[in-house]
Design brief:
Elements (H helix, E strand, L loop, with lengths): L4 H24 L3 H18 L11
Length: 60
């Protein structure tokens, strides 16, 4: 588990980058089912990344 919010954000941004790379491959191969699943996964990651209040409270 990431120790602070900055580490968590870096982890989530890495996940988004990986999803976007896979999306490119899925688009090139016309994989509609894969694109649908990737859109869902991206939505879940973005929900965590942009939620208020943050996932980790740094005031501990």
């Amino acid at each position: 588990m990431p120790a602070n919010e900055k580490e968590l954000n870096c982890y989530l941004l890495d996940q988004l980058e990986l999803i976007e790379r896979i999306e490119i491959i899925a688009q090139n191969s016309n994989s509609d089912e894969v694109l649908k699943q990737l859109a869902l996964e991206k939505k879940f990651v973005e929900r965590k990344l942009y939620q208020k209040p943050p996932l980790i409270n740094d005031e501990q």
